[in-house]
């Protein structure tokens, strides 16, 4: 019952109810400039990035939920400037490019290919609604030719400075940068495959 009550209270508080008022245009957010220093990592060879996301992250809604509830919500008066799938792909490209070129597609079969899947990008509240965090979940697979070199699961969490949409956006910005840094570090420590003629 406590979880159900918390969900109801948060839904009413966060939905931006506009009864009796003309709805204002939604506030729009993005991930901001990529200005945070990145870890000192060695240069690497060019790689091709293939990125995909779950269907719910192809919309511009700012998603939140309570705990592990299976009922995600979206703020009524807040939107992302682009779908999270696009924002996260852009941020990964920006940060990974600091170690080496990131391509849209393979130049040859021997060009390493990094396949990344985004499955979570949302603000998650505690059951009592008193705290929340931004959560970003990625799965990555590195291919050389047709062979799997390595794979990893990256989960980044960052506390929200406020229990509202702005706080969730700030937390998701930090969590996205944390996830990108973890991905760059993983690539730097993944053994390099021996070159094989013909892939």
Topology:
Layout: H1 2-14, E1 27-29, E2 47-53, E3 61-66, E4 73-80, H2 84-96, E5 102-103, E6 113-125, E7 132-144, E8 147-159, H3 165-189
Parallel strand pairs: 1-4, 2-5, 2-6, 3-6
Antiparallel strand pairs: 3-4, 6-7, 7-8
Helix pairs in contact: 2-3
Keywords: Lipoprotein, Signal
Pfam families: ABC_trans_aux
Organism: Achromobacter aegrifaciens
Structure description:
The protein has 199 residues and is α/β, with parallel strands linked by helices. It contains 3 helices and 8 strands; from the N terminus they run αββββαββββα. It has helices at residues 2-14, 84-96, 165-189; strands at 27-29, 47-53, 61-66, 73-80, 102-103, 113-125, 132-144, 147-159. Strands 1, 2, 3, 4, 5, 6, 7 and 8 form an 8-stranded mixed sheet that branches. Strand 3 and strand 4 form a beta hairpin. The longest helix is centred in the last third of the chain and has 25 residues, at 165-189. The protein is elongated. The mean pLDDT is 87.
N- and C-termini, Cα separation = 57 Å
The main β sheet shows up as: 8 strands, mixed
As a whole number of angstroms, the C-alpha radius of gyration is: 19 Å
Low-confidence stretches: none
SSE sequence, one letter per element = HEEEEHEEEEH
> What proportion of the residues form beta strands (DSSP E)?
25-35%
Q: What's the total count of β strands?
A: 8
- Mean pLDDT across the residues is 87
- Morphology: elongated
The helix-and-strand class reads alpha/beta
Count of separate DSSP helical elements: 3
Helix content: 25-40%
């Amino acid at each position: 019952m406590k979880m159900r009550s918390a969900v109801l209270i948060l839904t009413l508080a966060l939905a931006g109810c506009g009864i009796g008022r003309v709805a204002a245009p939604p506030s729009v957010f993005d991930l901001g400039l990529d200005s945070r220093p990145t870890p000192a990592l060695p240069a690497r060879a060019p790689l091709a990035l293939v990125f995909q996301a779950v269907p719910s992250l192809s919309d511009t809604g700012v998603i939140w939920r309570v705990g592990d509830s299976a009922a995600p919500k979206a703020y009524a008066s807040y939107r992302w400037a682009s779908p999270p799938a696009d924002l996260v792909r852009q941020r990964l490209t920006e940060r990974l490019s600091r170690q080496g070129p990131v391509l849209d597609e393979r130049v040859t079969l021997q060009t390493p290919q990094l396949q990344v899947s985004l499955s979570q990008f949302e603000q998650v509240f505690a059951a009592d609604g008193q705290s929340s965090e931004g959560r970003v979940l990625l799965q990555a697979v590195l291919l050389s030719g047709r062979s799997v070199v390595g794979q990893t699961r990256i989960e980044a969490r960052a506390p929200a400075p406020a229990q509202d949409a702005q706080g969730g956006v700030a937390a998701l910005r930090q969590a996205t940068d944390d996830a990108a840094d973890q991905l760059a570090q993983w690539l730097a420590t993944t053994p390099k495959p021996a070159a094989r003629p013909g892939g």
